[in-house]
Amino acid sequence: MSLTAGRILMLNGTSSSGKTTIVRALQSRLAELWLEMGIDRFAYALPGRVRGEPTWPLLFPYVPIPGAPEGAFAIETTLLGERFVSAVHVTAVTLAKRGLNVIVDHVMLEARWFDECRRLWSPYSPLYVRVSCPRDVLLQRERARGDRTIGQAGAQFDLIQAWEESDVDVDTSRLSVEEAVDRIVLALDTMGPG
């Protein structure tokens, strides 16, 4: 049995930028089946604690920034965190290789992560989308949601804003979900498979 390879679409944005909402709208709109996966999906598969310690800091510890406003922190990546992220990237390849289209919901904190994606995903017609909005909007959304670590979006903001490798940029403070999806669908259609 010969399989037609799937495609990979990555949405890269901070926490609270609107990626999940866009993913759901894309899945409803696109004619073909698209499987959503990514950092959060993998994180939900982790136990809350390992050997009595919270799991997330074992992968991505939050490190206070000296001299910064109270509560400000940077996000570091441990060796285990690197392996975790690389597993997300390889899983997307495995799914696409088996003929499934994949939407990867990502927070691209390290340039080397994108280098790995570009190398691994090139046979699968990847489309890279940056999902952004102004810092003040992110912080407001983060507080309103009540289910996020306060400061996480701010810690991710500059890294995502500096990302220049996108094929499509959508600012969720200026575009409706439908308008953002229109841009992404147009780019998918324009690029076409392979």
Describe the protein's architecture and organization.
This protein has 194 residues and is α/β, with parallel strands linked by helices. The protein has a single domain (8-45, 81-191), classed as Rossmann fold. 45% of the residues lie in helices and 19% in strands. The strands form three sheets. The protein has a five-stranded parallel sheet with strand order 2-7-1-8-9, sandwiched between helices. Helix 1 (19-29) packs across helix 8. The longest helix has 19 residues, at 79-97.
Describe the protein's topology.
Layout (H helix, E strand, L loop, with lengths): L7 E6 L5 H11 L4 E5 H6 L4 E2 L2 E2 L1 H4 L2 E3 L8 E3 L3 H19 L3 E6 L4 H11 L5 E6 L2 H11 L6 H10 L6 E4 L5 H15 L3
Parallel strand pairs: 1-7, 1-8, 2-7, 8-9
Antiparallel strand pairs: 3-4, 5-6
Low-confidence stretches: none
- Silhouette: globular
Across the major sheet, the strand order is 2-7-1-8-9
CATH architecture: 3-Layer(aba) Sandwich
Work out the number of β strands.
9
Average pLDDT confidence is 88
Which series of helices and strands comes N to C? EHEHEEHEEHEHEHHEH
Within the CATH hierarchy, at the fold level, what is the topology?
Rossmann fold
Tell me the name of the CATH class.
Alpha Beta
